Amino acid sequence: MEKEHVKCLIAGGGPAGYTAAIYASRSGLAPVLYEGMQPGGQLTTTTEVENYPGFENGIDGRALVDTMKAQAVRLGADIRTGTVSGADLSSRPFRLTVDGEKEIVAETLVIATGANAKYLGLPSEEKFKGMGVSACATCDGFFYRKKTVAVVGGGDTACEEATYLASICSKVYMIVRRDVLRASSAMQDRVRNTPNIEILWNCSTQEVLGDASGVTGVRLLRKDGEVFEIGVDGFFLAIGHHPNSELFSKWVNVNPDGYILTDGVSSRTNVEGVFAAGDVQDPYYRQAITAAASGCRAALDAEKFLISQNLI
Ligand code: NDP
Protein backbone atom coordinates (compact mmCIF):
# COMPACT_ATOMS: atom_id res chain seq x y z
CA MET A 1 0.00 0.00 0.00
CA GLU A 2 1.22 3.49 -0.88
CA LYS A 3 2.52 5.29 2.22
CA GLU A 4 3.05 8.98 3.02
CA HIS A 5 4.33 10.75 6.13
CA VAL A 6 2.73 14.06 7.18
CA LYS A 7 3.00 16.39 10.15
CA CYS A 8 -0.67 17.27 10.25
CA LEU A 9 -3.56 15.35 8.76
CA ILE A 10 -7.00 16.94 8.74
CA ALA A 11 -10.01 14.70 8.22
CA GLY A 12 -13.03 16.59 6.94
CA GLY A 13 -13.66 19.45 4.54
CA GLY A 14 -16.09 21.82 6.20
CA PRO A 15 -15.60 25.17 7.97
CA ALA A 16 -13.69 23.46 10.82
CA GLY A 17 -11.34 21.49 8.56
CA TYR A 18 -10.68 24.34 6.12
CA THR A 19 -10.01 26.79 8.94
CA ALA A 20 -7.64 24.30 10.58
CA ALA A 21 -5.90 24.02 7.19
CA ILE A 22 -5.59 27.83 6.88
CA TYR A 23 -3.99 28.16 10.31
CA ALA A 24 -1.84 25.04 10.01
CA SER A 25 -0.49 26.18 6.63
CA ARG A 26 0.48 29.58 7.98
CA SER A 27 2.21 27.87 10.90
CA GLY A 28 4.32 25.74 8.57
CA LEU A 29 2.67 22.39 9.38
CA ALA A 30 2.19 21.55 5.67
CA PRO A 31 -1.28 20.13 6.39
CA VAL A 32 -2.90 17.51 4.22
CA LEU A 33 -6.69 17.60 4.29
CA TYR A 34 -9.04 14.91 3.01
CA GLU A 35 -12.45 16.36 2.34
CA GLY A 36 -14.55 13.27 2.97
CA MET A 37 -17.79 12.24 1.36
CA GLN A 38 -19.43 15.66 1.46
CA PRO A 39 -16.79 18.23 0.46
CA GLY A 40 -17.83 21.54 2.00
CA GLY A 41 -19.90 19.86 4.70
CA GLN A 42 -23.39 20.78 5.81
CA LEU A 43 -23.15 24.34 4.47
CA THR A 44 -23.48 22.92 0.99
CA THR A 45 -27.04 21.83 1.84
CA THR A 46 -28.14 25.33 2.71
CA THR A 47 -28.68 28.25 0.37
CA GLU A 48 -28.10 31.74 1.71
CA VAL A 49 -25.94 32.18 4.83
CA GLU A 50 -26.73 35.51 6.43
CA ASN A 51 -25.11 35.11 9.84
CA TYR A 52 -21.47 34.46 8.94
CA PRO A 53 -19.63 37.68 9.83
CA GLY A 54 -17.83 39.49 7.06
CA PHE A 55 -20.52 39.22 4.40
CA GLU A 56 -22.75 42.24 4.70
CA ASN A 57 -25.32 40.92 2.25
CA GLY A 58 -25.00 37.25 3.11
CA ILE A 59 -23.32 34.60 1.00
CA ASP A 60 -24.36 31.37 -0.63
CA GLY A 61 -23.36 28.37 1.56
CA ARG A 62 -21.46 26.67 -1.23
CA ALA A 63 -19.65 29.89 -2.15
CA LEU A 64 -18.64 30.38 1.49
CA VAL A 65 -16.99 26.97 1.83
CA ASP A 66 -15.44 27.21 -1.63
CA THR A 67 -13.85 30.50 -0.57
CA MET A 68 -12.53 28.97 2.65
CA LYS A 69 -11.04 26.12 0.64
CA ALA A 70 -9.46 28.47 -1.92
CA GLN A 71 -7.95 30.49 0.93
CA ALA A 72 -6.45 27.35 2.48
CA VAL A 73 -5.04 26.25 -0.90
CA ARG A 74 -3.55 29.70 -1.53
CA LEU A 75 -1.77 29.47 1.82
CA GLY A 76 -0.28 26.12 0.88
CA ALA A 77 -2.67 23.49 2.27
CA ASP A 78 -2.79 20.24 0.33
CA ILE A 79 -6.51 19.62 -0.01
CA ARG A 80 -7.46 16.31 -1.53
CA THR A 81 -10.53 14.43 -2.61
CA GLY A 82 -10.87 11.27 -0.54
CA THR A 83 -12.20 9.93 2.71
CA VAL A 84 -10.27 8.76 5.74
CA SER A 85 -11.57 5.18 5.93
CA GLY A 86 -9.40 3.60 8.60
CA ALA A 87 -7.58 4.75 11.73
CA ASP A 88 -5.05 3.27 14.11
CA LEU A 89 -4.44 5.80 16.86
CA SER A 90 -2.89 3.32 19.28
CA SER A 91 0.56 4.88 18.99
CA ARG A 92 2.28 7.86 17.38
CA PRO A 93 2.75 8.52 14.56
CA PHE A 94 -0.85 7.60 13.78
CA ARG A 95 -1.76 5.39 10.87
CA LEU A 96 -4.70 6.42 8.76
CA THR A 97 -6.05 4.82 5.61
CA VAL A 98 -7.61 6.85 2.81
CA ASP A 99 -10.25 5.25 0.61
CA GLY A 100 -8.92 1.89 1.73
CA GLU A 101 -5.93 2.18 -0.57
CA LYS A 102 -3.40 4.66 0.78
CA GLU A 103 -1.72 4.86 4.17
CA ILE A 104 -0.95 8.19 5.80
CA VAL A 105 1.42 8.24 8.74
CA ALA A 106 0.56 11.39 10.69
CA GLU A 107 2.26 13.10 13.61
CA THR A 108 -0.96 14.93 14.46
CA LEU A 109 -4.56 14.39 13.46
CA VAL A 110 -7.37 16.93 13.40
CA ILE A 111 -10.77 15.24 13.29
CA ALA A 112 -13.23 17.60 11.63
CA THR A 113 -15.64 15.08 10.15
CA GLY A 114 -18.78 16.96 11.19
CA ALA A 115 -22.24 15.74 11.92
CA ASN A 116 -25.31 15.14 9.87
CA ALA A 117 -28.81 16.23 10.79
CA LYS A 118 -31.21 13.35 11.02
CA TYR A 119 -34.09 13.38 8.59
CA LEU A 120 -37.30 11.35 8.61
CA GLY A 121 -36.41 9.60 5.37
CA LEU A 122 -39.52 10.54 3.36
CA PRO A 123 -39.06 10.97 -0.41
CA SER A 124 -41.16 14.17 -0.27
CA GLU A 125 -38.86 15.55 2.43
CA GLU A 126 -35.86 14.89 0.19
CA LYS A 127 -37.63 16.50 -2.77
CA PHE A 128 -38.18 19.80 -0.91
CA LYS A 129 -34.80 20.07 0.82
CA GLY A 130 -33.70 23.67 0.38
CA MET A 131 -37.23 24.55 -0.86
CA GLY A 132 -38.90 24.73 2.53
CA VAL A 133 -37.40 21.68 4.23
CA SER A 134 -34.51 22.57 6.52
CA ALA A 135 -32.68 21.13 9.51
CA CYS A 136 -31.41 24.48 10.76
CA ALA A 137 -33.77 27.16 12.05
CA THR A 138 -30.90 29.53 12.87
CA CYS A 139 -29.75 29.29 9.25
CA ASP A 140 -33.05 29.44 7.43
CA GLY A 141 -35.67 30.79 9.85
CA PHE A 142 -35.25 34.34 8.66
CA PHE A 143 -36.71 33.43 5.28
CA TYR A 144 -40.06 32.59 6.93
CA ARG A 145 -40.76 35.99 8.45
CA LYS A 146 -44.48 36.30 9.25
CA LYS A 147 -45.14 32.87 7.75
CA THR A 148 -46.30 29.56 9.20
CA VAL A 149 -43.80 26.77 9.83
CA ALA A 150 -43.63 23.37 11.50
CA VAL A 151 -40.84 21.91 13.64
CA VAL A 152 -40.54 18.15 14.08
CA GLY A 153 -39.17 16.85 17.38
CA GLY A 154 -39.65 17.22 21.11
CA GLY A 155 -36.09 17.62 22.41
CA ASP A 156 -34.19 20.71 23.52
CA THR A 157 -33.21 21.54 19.94
CA ALA A 158 -36.82 21.37 18.73
CA CYS A 159 -37.99 23.59 21.61
CA GLU A 160 -35.16 26.05 21.06
CA GLU A 161 -35.78 26.18 17.32
CA ALA A 162 -39.54 26.51 17.81
CA THR A 163 -39.16 29.46 20.19
CA TYR A 164 -36.59 31.06 17.87
CA LEU A 165 -38.91 30.62 14.89
CA ALA A 166 -41.85 31.92 16.92
CA SER A 167 -40.04 35.25 17.24
CA ILE A 168 -39.88 35.50 13.45
CA CYS A 169 -42.89 33.60 12.12
CA SER A 170 -46.56 34.25 12.69
CA LYS A 171 -47.25 30.64 13.74
CA VAL A 172 -45.16 27.60 14.64
CA TYR A 173 -46.49 24.05 14.89
CA MET A 174 -44.44 21.50 16.82
CA ILE A 175 -44.99 17.98 15.55
CA VAL A 176 -44.30 15.64 18.49
CA ARG A 177 -44.57 11.88 18.12
CA ARG A 178 -45.42 11.15 21.77
CA ASP A 179 -47.60 12.88 24.37
CA VAL A 180 -44.58 14.32 26.19
CA LEU A 181 -41.59 16.46 25.31
CA ARG A 182 -38.12 15.06 25.87
CA ALA A 183 -36.75 18.58 26.42
CA SER A 184 -35.65 19.98 29.79
CA SER A 185 -38.42 21.55 31.85
CA ALA A 186 -36.97 25.04 31.33
CA MET A 187 -37.22 24.62 27.56
CA GLN A 188 -40.72 23.14 27.86
CA ASP A 189 -41.78 26.19 29.86
CA ARG A 190 -40.43 28.50 27.19
CA VAL A 191 -42.50 26.68 24.58
CA ARG A 192 -45.64 26.72 26.72
CA ASN A 193 -45.21 30.43 27.38
CA THR A 194 -44.95 31.26 23.68
CA PRO A 195 -48.47 31.92 22.45
CA ASN A 196 -47.86 31.37 18.74
CA ILE A 197 -46.50 27.82 19.20
CA GLU A 198 -49.06 25.02 18.91
CA ILE A 199 -47.98 21.50 19.80
CA LEU A 200 -49.51 18.68 17.78
CA TRP A 201 -49.12 15.72 20.13
CA ASN A 202 -48.88 12.07 19.10
CA CYS A 203 -48.36 12.99 15.47
CA SER A 204 -46.06 11.61 12.83
CA THR A 205 -45.41 13.08 9.41
CA GLN A 206 -46.76 11.06 6.51
CA GLU A 207 -45.89 13.46 3.72
CA VAL A 208 -44.44 16.88 3.06
CA LEU A 209 -46.75 18.61 0.59
CA GLY A 210 -45.68 21.19 -1.94
CA ASP A 211 -45.60 22.50 -5.46
CA ALA A 212 -43.11 24.19 -7.75
CA SER A 213 -42.80 27.09 -5.29
CA GLY A 214 -41.79 24.79 -2.42
CA VAL A 215 -43.44 23.44 0.71
CA THR A 216 -47.14 24.23 1.16
CA GLY A 217 -48.16 21.84 3.93
CA VAL A 218 -47.74 18.58 5.79
CA ARG A 219 -49.95 15.50 6.06
CA LEU A 220 -49.93 14.08 9.57
CA LEU A 221 -51.11 10.86 11.19
CA ARG A 222 -52.24 11.02 14.79
CA LYS A 223 -51.93 7.96 17.01
CA ASP A 224 -55.76 7.70 17.19
CA GLY A 225 -55.71 7.06 13.42
CA GLU A 226 -56.82 10.49 12.23
CA VAL A 227 -55.03 11.74 9.13
CA PHE A 228 -55.07 15.51 8.61
CA GLU A 229 -53.19 18.27 6.83
CA ILE A 230 -51.78 21.58 8.02
CA GLY A 231 -50.68 24.43 5.79
CA VAL A 232 -47.05 25.49 6.33
CA ASP A 233 -44.40 27.33 4.32
CA GLY A 234 -41.42 25.77 6.11
CA PHE A 235 -40.77 22.33 7.58
CA PHE A 236 -37.89 22.14 10.08
CA LEU A 237 -36.35 18.90 11.31
CA ALA A 238 -35.03 18.92 14.87
CA ILE A 239 -34.85 15.21 15.63
CA GLY A 240 -31.16 15.10 16.46
CA HIS A 241 -27.80 15.01 14.76
CA HIS A 242 -25.40 12.20 14.17
CA PRO A 243 -21.69 13.00 14.72
CA ASN A 244 -19.35 11.30 12.25
CA SER A 245 -17.02 9.89 14.90
CA GLU A 246 -17.38 6.11 14.45
CA LEU A 247 -14.00 5.65 12.85
CA PHE A 248 -12.21 7.22 15.81
CA SER A 249 -14.38 6.31 18.80
CA LYS A 250 -12.35 3.19 19.52
CA TRP A 251 -9.49 5.53 20.47
CA VAL A 252 -10.91 8.90 21.44
CA ASN A 253 -13.45 9.40 24.19
CA VAL A 254 -16.96 10.29 23.05
CA ASN A 255 -20.14 11.14 24.95
CA PRO A 256 -23.14 8.77 24.90
CA ASP A 257 -24.35 10.37 21.64
CA GLY A 258 -20.98 9.91 19.93
CA TYR A 259 -19.68 13.49 20.15
CA ILE A 260 -15.91 13.57 20.69
CA LEU A 261 -14.93 14.89 24.10
CA THR A 262 -12.31 17.62 24.20
CA ASP A 263 -10.36 18.99 27.13
CA GLY A 264 -11.88 22.25 28.38
CA VAL A 265 -11.81 25.03 25.81
CA SER A 266 -9.06 23.28 23.87
CA SER A 267 -9.48 20.87 20.95
CA ARG A 268 -7.37 18.19 22.67
CA THR A 269 -8.84 14.70 22.86
CA ASN A 270 -7.68 12.04 25.32
CA VAL A 271 -5.17 10.84 22.71
CA GLU A 272 -2.09 13.08 22.66
CA GLY A 273 -1.65 14.55 19.19
CA VAL A 274 -5.30 14.02 18.19
CA PHE A 275 -7.54 17.08 18.09
CA ALA A 276 -11.22 17.47 17.30
CA ALA A 277 -12.95 20.46 15.78
CA GLY A 278 -16.39 21.44 14.53
CA ASP A 279 -19.68 19.62 14.80
CA VAL A 280 -18.12 16.21 15.52
CA GLN A 281 -17.37 17.58 18.99
CA ASP A 282 -20.15 20.17 19.38
CA PRO A 283 -23.70 19.07 20.17
CA TYR A 284 -24.77 22.58 21.15
CA TYR A 285 -23.83 25.46 18.84
CA ARG A 286 -23.38 23.76 15.45
CA GLN A 287 -22.82 27.01 13.56
CA ALA A 288 -20.36 27.56 10.71
CA ILE A 289 -18.69 30.31 12.70
CA THR A 290 -18.26 28.16 15.83
CA ALA A 291 -16.95 25.28 13.71
CA ALA A 292 -14.46 27.60 12.01
CA ALA A 293 -13.32 28.93 15.38
CA SER A 294 -12.74 25.45 16.73
CA GLY A 295 -10.76 24.56 13.58
CA CYS A 296 -8.49 27.48 14.42
CA ARG A 297 -8.04 26.12 17.94
CA ALA A 298 -7.21 22.65 16.62
CA ALA A 299 -4.47 23.98 14.33
CA LEU A 300 -2.97 26.07 17.12
CA ASP A 301 -3.12 23.09 19.48
CA ALA A 302 -1.49 20.85 16.86
CA GLU A 303 1.26 23.40 16.31
CA LYS A 304 1.93 23.65 20.02
CA PHE A 305 2.04 19.88 20.29
CA LEU A 306 4.48 19.50 17.37
CA ILE A 307 6.75 22.14 18.91
CA SER A 308 6.66 20.28 22.24
CA GLN A 309 7.76 17.12 20.42
CA ASN A 310 10.51 18.94 18.48
CA LEU A 311 8.78 17.97 15.26
CA ILE A 312 8.74 21.50 13.83
P1 NDP B 1 -32.72 14.66 21.26
O1 NDP B 1 -32.24 13.31 20.89
O2 NDP B 1 -32.65 15.09 22.68
O3 NDP B 1 -34.26 14.78 20.87
C1 NDP B 1 -34.72 14.34 19.62
C2 NDP B 1 -36.22 14.55 19.56
O4 NDP B 1 -36.67 14.18 18.26
C3 NDP B 1 -36.99 13.72 20.56
O5 NDP B 1 -38.15 14.42 21.00
C4 NDP B 1 -37.43 12.53 19.71
O6 NDP B 1 -38.64 11.94 20.12
C5 NDP B 1 -37.64 13.16 18.37
N1 NDP B 1 -37.46 12.22 17.28
C6 NDP B 1 -36.39 11.43 17.05
N2 NDP B 1 -36.57 10.72 15.93
C7 NDP B 1 -37.78 11.07 15.46
C8 NDP B 1 -38.56 10.66 14.33
N3 NDP B 1 -38.10 9.78 13.46
N4 NDP B 1 -39.77 11.22 14.15
C9 NDP B 1 -40.24 12.14 15.02
N5 NDP B 1 -39.58 12.56 16.10
C10 NDP B 1 -38.36 12.02 16.31
O7 NDP B 1 -31.96 15.66 20.26
P2 NDP B 1 -31.71 17.23 20.40
O8 NDP B 1 -31.06 17.65 19.13
O9 NDP B 1 -32.93 17.94 20.79
O10 NDP B 1 -30.66 17.38 21.58
C11 NDP B 1 -29.37 16.73 21.52
C12 NDP B 1 -28.63 17.00 22.82
O11 NDP B 1 -28.26 18.38 22.89
C13 NDP B 1 -29.48 16.73 24.06
O12 NDP B 1 -28.66 16.22 25.06
C14 NDP B 1 -30.00 18.10 24.42
O13 NDP B 1 -30.33 18.21 25.80
C15 NDP B 1 -28.82 18.98 24.06
N6 NDP B 1 -29.26 20.35 23.74
C16 NDP B 1 -29.25 21.26 24.75
C17 NDP B 1 -29.65 22.56 24.53
C18 NDP B 1 -29.63 23.52 25.63
O14 NDP B 1 -29.32 23.12 26.74
N7 NDP B 1 -29.94 24.77 25.39
C19 NDP B 1 -30.11 23.02 23.20
C20 NDP B 1 -30.11 21.97 22.22
C21 NDP B 1 -29.69 20.70 22.51
P3 NDP B 1 -38.73 11.00 21.44
O15 NDP B 1 -38.64 11.92 22.60
O16 NDP B 1 -40.07 10.36 21.26
O17 NDP B 1 -37.60 10.03 21.34
TrEMBL record:
Instruction: State its cofactor.
Output: FAD
Kindly state what the record says about how the cofactor is bound.
Binds 1 FAD per subunit.
Q: Name one GO biological process term.
A: removal of superoxide radicals
Cellular component GO terms held in the UniProt record: cytoplasm
Q: Which residues cross the membrane?
A: none
Write down the chemical reaction(s) this protein catalyses: [thioredoxin]-dithiol + NADP(+) = [thioredoxin]-disulfide + NADPH + H(+)
Does this UniProt record's set of keywords contain Flavoprotein? yes
Ranges for the FAD/NAD(P)-binding domain? 7-295
Key word Magnesium present in the record? Answer: no
Source organism superkingdom: Bacteria
The alphabetized UniProt keywords are: Disulfide bond, FAD, Flavoprotein, NADP, Oxidoreductase, Redox-active center
Q: Which class of enzymes does this protein belong to? A: oxidoreductase
Q: What is its EC number?
A: 1.8.1.9
The cross-references to Pfam families, in alphabetical order and at most eight, read: Pyr_redox_2
Example of a GO MF term: thioredoxin-disulfide reductase (NADPH) activity
Question: Cross-referenced PANTHER family, in alphabetical order?
Answer: THIOREDOXIN REDUCTASE 1-RELATED-RELATED (PTHR48105)
Q: Which family does it belong to?
A: Belongs to the class-II pyridine nucleotide-disulfide oxidoreductase family.
Q: How does it assemble?
A: Homodimer.
- Would you tell me the protein name for this molecule? Thioredoxin reductase
Q: Which organism is it from?
A: Candidatus Cryptobacteroides gallistercoris
Lineage per the UniProt record: Bacteria, Pseudomonadati, Bacteroidota, Bacteroidia, Bacteroidales
Gene encoding it? trxB
